[in-house]
């Protein structure tokens, strides 16, 4: 049976369609993605809980992926140190072909059954960590073999796939199987599958960061003020959280302590 991600598009003769028709059809397909994710939220919640438990116990999180999904996982991971002040090395992405070659799109590397595991070993992977495989098809050799090796050593595994009953899901302790249906362009899983993966990465990492204490209220109290825009945001968060009315004073305090959270802690000590 043809995997759902490879089944023929519901649309044909696309070259004869107008711009208005094409964008309308794509939009119709995109609207199916959030509904598909809603169907698997219980599985997403179980995966998130497992990640939170590992991180709270001192472990690490690794995405293991190739192609569009793997690249999207890298983009998710690289934003966490700035947005949440998360120390590097806690939340990681292992990409077929190497994270340092992200823009090269080395699709042939997804067939390499050794690279993913070799990178995990070099990272000191152990039973305190969790590895989440990313594969729209659910069959990518790079991901599959990495998860197999993990399970053989009692390393917790999860996955995000877009076909039912896949080999990768069978190797996952916490599988998330989000069925988005045939792609608008037959087999082009950078589209709906990629959109689903991006939405899930946002959902997973944001919820994890909240649950491990990187957010207070709804504010980025651990944001790393690395540029003027983020510095301004952090100063205003500090003013809102502490009641400091003077912008220059709040900015000076923030720069002295590095983050809103650190500044709040020091101000509380002075008050006490």
From TrEMBL:
Residue ranges of domain SIS in the record: 51-214
A biological-process GO annotation: amino sugar catabolic process
InterPro entries named in the record: Etherase_MurQ (IPR005488), MURQ/GCKR (IPR040190), SIS_dom (IPR001347), SIS_dom_sf (IPR046348)
MF terms in GO: carbohydrate derivative binding; carbon-oxygen lyase activity; ether hydrolase activity
SUPFAM superfamilies, A to Z: SIS domain
Keyword entries, A-Z: Carbohydrate metabolism, Lyase
The keyword Lyase appears for this protein: yes
NCBIfam families, per database record: PRK05441.1
Protein name, as recorded: N-acetylmuramic acid 6-phosphate etherase
């Amino acid at each position: 049976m043809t995997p759902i991600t490879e089944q023929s598009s519901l649309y044909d003769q696309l070259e004869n369609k107008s711009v208005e028709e094409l964008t309308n059809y794509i939009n119709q397909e995109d609207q199916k993605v959030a509904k598909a994710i809603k169907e698997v939220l219980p599985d997403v919640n179980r995966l998130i809980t497992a990640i939170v438990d590992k991180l709270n116990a001192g472990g690490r999180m690794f995405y293991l992926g190739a192609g569009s999904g793997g690249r999207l996982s890298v983009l998710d991971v690289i934003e966490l140190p700035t947005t949440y002040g998360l120390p590097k090395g806690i939340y990681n992405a292992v990409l077929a072909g190497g994270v340092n070659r992200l823009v090269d799109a080395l699709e042939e590397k997804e067939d390499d059954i050794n690279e993913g595991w070799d990178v995990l070993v070099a990272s000191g992977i152990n039973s305190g960590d969790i590895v989440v495989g990313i594969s729209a098809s659910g069959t990518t050799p790079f991901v599959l073999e990495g998860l197999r090796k993990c399970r053989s050593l009692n390393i917790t595994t999860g996955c995000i796939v877009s076909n039912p009953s896949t080999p990768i899901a069978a190797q996952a302790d916490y599988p998330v199987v989000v069925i988005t249906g045939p792609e608008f362009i037959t087999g082009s899983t950078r589209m709906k599958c990629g959109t689903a993966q991006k939405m899930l990465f946002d959902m997973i990492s944001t919820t994890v960061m909240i649950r491990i204490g990187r957010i207070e209220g709804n504010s980025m109290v651990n944001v790393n003020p690395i540029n003027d825009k983020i510095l301004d945001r952090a100063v205003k968060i500090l003013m809102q959280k502490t009641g400091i009315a003077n912008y220059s004073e709040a900015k000076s305090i923030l720069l002295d302590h590095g983050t809103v959270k650190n500044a709040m802690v020091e101000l509380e000590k002075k008050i006490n």
